[in-house]
Design a protein that fits this description.
By secondary structure, the protein is α+β, with helices and mostly antiparallel strands. The chain contains 4 helices and 9 strands; from the N terminus they run ααβαββββαββββ.
Length: 141
């Protein structure tokens, strides 16, 4: 009986039931936005547009960079905290919610570029940012 309970508990866990976290999968960077102060030029931002970024439990991949064994941490913050941290409002990113989910990706060694904070817009789109530019990402699958 004990084994049956353990088996049922394991099957209800998302990793075993086929459910996945919304941010896992293949994404495409489709545009760059500059809602505030930025250190990035339009030309530098344009170099990221059109690239794919892959998030999985085993790795994060963007351009020629690979992060093995990433750790993901989810936090929900109110718009005022988002603005204080990012110097931009959620409305400029077309996010109109009372709380926004941020996924922080911890990678060792880390690389220099976007992708280590994901701002959830919905289950199929979000933003990653770098040097003041917000890159809209759309889920491919």
């Amino acid at each position: 009986m004990h084994y049956l309970i353990v088996l049922l508990a394991a099957l209800s866990y998302p990793a075993f039931s086929g459910e996945r976290e919304w941010y896992l999968g293949d994404w495409r960077i489709v545009e760059a936005r500059f809602p505030g102060v930025t250190a990035m030029t339009d030309q530098e931002a344009a170099a990221w547009v059109g690239l794919d970024i892959h998030y999985s439990n085993n790795s994060v991949e963007l351009k020629n960079e690979i992060c093995n064994a990433p750790a993901y941490e989810s936090n929900s913050v109110p718009p005022v905290d988002f603005m204080g941290r990012n110097m931009s409002t959620l409305e400029t990113l077309e996010i109109n919610t009372s709380m926004v989910e941020l996924i922080e990706v911890d990678c060792t060694p880390s690389w220099m570029g976007p992708g280590f904070t994901i701002i959830k817009r919905d289950d199929h789109s979000g933003y990653i940012f770098w040097d003041g530019a917000y890159f809209l990402i759309i889920k491919k699958n």
